[in-house]
Amino acid sequence: MREGFGPTISTPGHMGVDFETRVDFARLRDYRLARARAALEASEFGSLLLFDFYNIRYVSGTWVGGALGDKMTRYCLLTRGGEPMVWDFGSAARHHKLFAPWLEPDNCRAGMLGLRGAIAPRAGLFTSAVEEIVGLLRDAGVADQPVGLDIVELPFLFELQGAGIEVRDAQQTMLDARVIKSPDEIMLLSQAAAMVDGVYHDVFEALKPGVRENQIVALVNQRLYEMGSDQVEAVNSVSGERCNPHPHNFTDRIIRPGDQAFFDIIHSYNGYRTCYYRTLSVGSATAPQRDAYTQARVWMDAAIDLVKPGVGTDEIARAWPAATDFGFADEMAAFGLQFGHGLGLGLHERPIISRLNSLTDPIELREGMVFALETYCPASDGVSAARIEEEVVVTADGPAILTHFPAQDLLIAHEY
Questions:
Q1: 25-178 topology per CATH
Q2: CA–CA distance from 206 to each of 9, 56, 380 (Å)?
Q3: Which tens digit of pLDDT belongs to each residue from 157-210?
Q4: At residue 31, what are phi and psi to the nearest 5 degrees?
Q5: How many Å is the Cα radius of gyration of the chain?
Q6: For 183-413, which CATH class?
Q7: Which residue has the higher pLDDT, 401 or 3?
Q8: SS3 label, residue 72
């Protein structure tokens, strides 16, 4: 990373203290709810009915993750002029009443639907849930207006339609609401990245012949949870001949002298995510490996140089090579290799930057957007490859980089 490139984003300690201004969580919740309300008011909807667990957290400030968070049984209703209502997995609703005072107690309700089909629709849970929601919509005076819905199980959708409720897509509305990050959100994103900065130093020290890819994954998970991560969503650990083509996973492969290896660390701190690739060589590096890394860095720096308010995502996408220039038949086949994606509560938010979509549907960069930029270059040896990723904040003065582990030059662990 170039010295002095872009403005600095502060990364204070993770604890709250009385002598510094750090993350203000009440302000964070107020900001997010205000953004959602403004989006609702500007929309065609009378209400938002949310099943996407990132949208639920954004609107309500509640979170149940892991095995229960993605089973489509938690949902949140926000009506025009109303307060958020959350239906949650059993006793989690009582927990919210005790520990989430920003929600009205009666708006924290136990709910259960189908657990992705495990409970059949004939049990009647979808029917009773829709009857309750329709009653609430009538009470709020919005039952005759379209309901904005983000994602849904089909039986729930069918019940809504059977009750005469007009349903329209609200995922676009919510992603637009979430696209501009507040200073508190940016601080949490910076803190999450700082944790990975430190973990990459641990990876650099551990990366030596005889270590397996999965051992690196275990190390990353342990260190991040020790540092306060609330979810390690994924760790890509890719080495040697597995680098080309990129498999987007990890195995038990033993790392050998002279291997090139790259890693992607995806975790969240207080909900805010990282997507953070680094490439290292083990013991030594060949000329093809160094050349691939240099090229991946050139493509990265060309993209970063363009980041400022008013620039279109198509301009960034054009700074990267076409898929056919690095061995792929088309942009669909190469999707995710020369790539940008918004970061926030979700891993893939707006803007999405790629030659696949940005050339025909560009988005204008705005101050407060945060996204990751990723480049990939296969080496001429046919097996190695370099992968670099930087997380970028769009500021009035240009790009600010959140990812600080060195990546300007190829680093060699335990060089011989």
A1: Creatine Amidinohydrolase; Chain A, domain 1 (3.40.350)
A2: 29, 39, 27
A3: 999 999 999 999 999 999 999 999 999 999 999 999 999 999 999 999 999 999
A4: -60, -50
A5: 23
A6: alpha beta
A7: 401
A8: coil
